[in-house]
Amino acid sequence: MSQEKKLWIAFALVTGISFLVLLYYGYEIYQKAPPLPSKIVSEEGNTIIDGQDIKDGQNVWQSMGGQEVGSIWGHGAYLAPDWTADYIHREALFILDKWSQEDFGKPYSDLDNENRAALESRLQELLRENNYDPETGTITISPIRVAAFEYLHQYYKGLLMNNPEMAEFRANYAIPKNSIKDETRMRQMSSFFFWASWACVTERPNENITYTHNWPPEKLVGNVATGSLLIWTGVSIILLLVGIGIMVFYHARSKEEEPESPVEDPLMRQQITPSMLAVKKYIWVVAFLVLIQMTFGVVTAHYGVEGDAFYGFDLSKILPYSISRTWHVQLGILWIATAWLATGLYIAPSLSGKDPKYQKLGVNFLFVCLLIIVFGSMAGQWMGVMQKLGLETNFWFGHQGYEYVDLGRFWQLFLFVGLILWLILMVRPLIPIFKSKTSEKGLLTMFIISSAAIAFFYAAGLMWGSQTNLAIAEYWRWWVVHLWVEGFFEVFATVVSAFLFVRLGLLQTKTATLAVIFSTVIFLSGGILGTFHHLYFSGTPTAVLAIGATFSALEVVPLVLIGFEAYHNYRLSKATKWLSDYKWPIYCLIAMAFWNFFGAGILGFIINPPIALYYIQGLNTTAAHAHGGLFGVYGILGMGLILFVLRSMYRSTKWNNKLIGFAFWATNVGLMLMIILSLLPIGVFQAVASVNEGMWYARSAEFMQTPMMDTLKWLRVIGDTIFALGLFAFVWFVFALNSKKRQVDNITTPLK
């Protein structure tokens, strides 16, 4: 049996078994999610909250931005509070103060340690008892919890509507006044906050941990780290070391045979078809979306220091924080995806040198669809957050409130159909190549598999409804965020990088094929089940913690040797004189390798072990990882792929190397400064606050508005400015190059 066949078998086994486990525990999540009650009643039997109000309250929360305004269970934005941690702490203090006044005639804060401890123990017995009756579907709460709910409803009503006394709080959290305009909606959202917080403090039946595994950390209610968090953290570190050892051993044994570099650029003899030329407009859109995304990033970051304005201008009236952050995140994914889609549409016909029938029409039609999706979804999200849509209409056309999948359901379906069309346009030109029994068949097969995964796995974002239990919706959301964005994007990146080097004659086809399949097997062996590390504290059973901790550690293993890949790519860039034309595209691949190691690997493993994530989920340490991983890896690769396509289109055009060189270095240096001067230090200080005081304090205005934290926020301006200049230079380069007349004399060279 050949080595390639063995690797294909390993790929099939790893993928098949991993998804079976993922789906099985998905079923378990359905069965063991925090129950949505039919109603919440007092001990006297009076209905305090109707079950439908909880579901509608979830929709109200989504309509104002959802995870783009603070977070629930640690997932979402970093500026406003985590609403569950905030609710739990305020409820605890309300009850403790009430009891303290009744028993001792003074506030809880004035009690001695002994009396405090007695009240805290009593509080924990009250809150942690599971008072859900599965037969009637009701949750019964004590009179003091009823009073606490009414008190907190008034608090959140004042914050999210228009209590003048809370104007400073609203500014600190970048929440415009009257974010919720209707009293009924406000009551419903308070009901949802109660339920989400109830799941955090209520112990599972016959267990001594809550539905969210004692998250958030809050000593007052007995939410402390469990022994299993420590045990599985140790297991993950041990597995990481074992995996690194195996990878180093494999790398030491393997030898790559590099072909003799061609004396001239093989792509110079490649025919550019009409559909390939039609891809140019995609590149223009990528450049335009880069500028828009960067602009909204600047606005979003500034809201952290001037929450209700932009340098004195009351921007929040027309562009609230939740919208600027939504568009910043969403456009980042869309422009990166567009760059990759464009590269695929360019590569596929280039292999045979001719277009299938109606290929150009399909490319142009897909482009129009892309524009409609991008700007139509943005308009719908703005209308949803501005409370101009009904709750059901908002779900379909407005703002779903789930980070990374904020698009309304109609736009999601539209995007899914567009991805399927893209896949068809990719496969059609490759069919004759497969029939010709080319030596690149294995590499092309992986290319199609990764492309199909990008198209089909987005469908996971269609698996929840408008009022699905949050724990179940989070399970499917992370299929999109982790498997689609972080997983199969990574596989596609590996395949495309190897394929480009093969087409340039710098790697042997067999070597590239084996390397790609092996890398994919290693990555997916940890990556698929590593999805669970996002779900430790999202209302999932304990087994999810064990599996997630075990396999998320293995995700880092292939990234440890990424330096060898970077050096290999750098050495290839020096292989022959004509490769100087590809200096900056190859440098982007080298930068991608660095950010894969630092942004995805180092910053990712800092937050992934269970005990670490318990204290820092939802803090700026995650933002550091997100920026380094998403833009550093996929954004830089997207820029590199665009440069490869432009180099092929404009072969006889002299590039402005000073401009593109400045763009490359400014973008990478600016991103690094953004992380090490601001995001990471803020996250570290928040982590210390979370360990010492609790999650509520690490996210509170009291902590985040201190002079030290304000200084760290302003320091971000240094990195942001350099980063922005780099992106401006990149966009200028792209438009300047596209404005020049192409001078090409191509002859067709079909794939051998």
Short recap of the structure:
This protein has 752 residues and is mainly alpha-helical. It has helices at 3-32, 51-63, 83-104, 113-128, 143-160, 167-172, 183-201, 227-253, 274-278, 280-302, 321-350, 359-385, 391-397, 409-427, 431-435, 441-456, 470-503, 509-527, 542-560, 562-573, 583-607, 610-616, 620-649, 657-692, 695-698, 701-704, 707-738; strands at 39-42, 47-50, 71-72, 75-76, 132-133, 138-141. Among the domains are: 46-221, no CATH class; 565-742, Cytochrome c oxidase-like, subunit I domain (Cytochrome C Oxidase, Chain A).
List keywords for this structure.
mainly alpha; Cytochrome C Oxidase, Chain A; 6 strands; 4-stranded mixed beta sheet; globular; 752 residues; 27 helices; 2% strand; two-stranded antiparallel ribbon; disordered C terminus
Question: Could you characterize what this model shows?
Answer:
Among the domains are: 46-221, no CATH class; 565-742, Up-down Bundle (Cytochrome C Oxidase, Chain A), CATH 1.20.210.10. Helices cover 67% and strands 2% of the residues. It contains 27 helices and six strands. The strands form two sheets. It has a four-stranded mixed sheet with strand order 2-1-6-5. A two-stranded antiparallel ribbon has the order 3-4. The longest helix is centred in the C-terminal third of the chain and has 36 residues, at 657-692.
Average predicted confidence as pLDDT:
90
- Total beta strands: 6
Count of helix runs: 27
CATH class assignment of one domain: Mainly Alpha
Q: Cα distance, first to last residue? A: 25 Å
Strand order of the largest sheet: 2-1-6-5
CATH architecture of one domain: Up-down Bundle
What shape does the CA trace take?
Answer: globular
Contiguous runs where pLDDT drops below 50 for at least 5 residues: 743-752
Approximate helicity band: 55-70%
CATH topology of one domain: the name is: Cytochrome C Oxidase, Chain A
- As a whole number of angstroms, the C-alpha radius of gyration is 27 Å
The CATH superfamily of one domain turns out to be Cytochrome c oxidase-like, subunit I domain
SS-derived structural category: mainly alpha
